[in-house]
Amino acid sequence: MKKYFYLLSTLSLLNISCSKDSPDDLKVPTLPETVTYDADIKPIMTNNCISCHGNSLAEAGLKLTTYAEVKDAIQNKGLINRISRSATDPLVMPKNNKMAQSNIDLIVKWQTDGLLEK
After folding, report:
1. SS3 state at 5
2. Closest by alpha carbon to 69, among 51, 49, 84?
């Protein structure tokens, strides 16, 4: 009887631990051939950064509302470093809600592509 109990317990744990991800959920998103500020980066900034870095009282004095501001933040203020930190790092941005890796990958590719505006 003990053998059946252990077998049933083991099977139950295996069933609970199985992922319900579909094959589509596991696909890595493909990056566009060329990333530009207007098409790819501005929406990310709007959805993830503008609430804290969008007005004259922007946190840490860092505004991220225009192409020039975001480009400067990447080139001179360590923006990629801050968004790439682990979710538990107190310096990660955005605070309390790490940005999706697909967005970080787009921003890094934008830098690699030369920080194109359009």
Report:
1. helix
2. 49
Integer CA distances (angstroms), 46 to 4, 24, 37, 64, 91, in order: 56, 27, 12, 9, 20
Whole-prediction pTM: 0.74
How many Å apart are CA 76 and CA 101, to the nearest integer?
A: 22
Would you state the structure tokens that stand for residue 93, as one six-digit string?
Answer: 């941005």
Query: What are 77-89's pLDDT values in tens digits?
Result: 999 999 999 999 9
Of 52, 55, 48, give the one whose Cα is nearest residue 40.
48
DSSP states along 35-84: -BIIIIIHHHHHHHTHHHHSSTT-GGG---SSHHHHHHHHHHS-HHHHHH
Coil, strand or helix: which one is 97?
Answer: coil
Number of helical (H) and strand (E) elements in the chain, helices listed first = 6, 0
Reported as a single tens digit per residue, the pLDDT across 8-41 is: 666 665 555 544 555 555 566 788 999 999 999 9
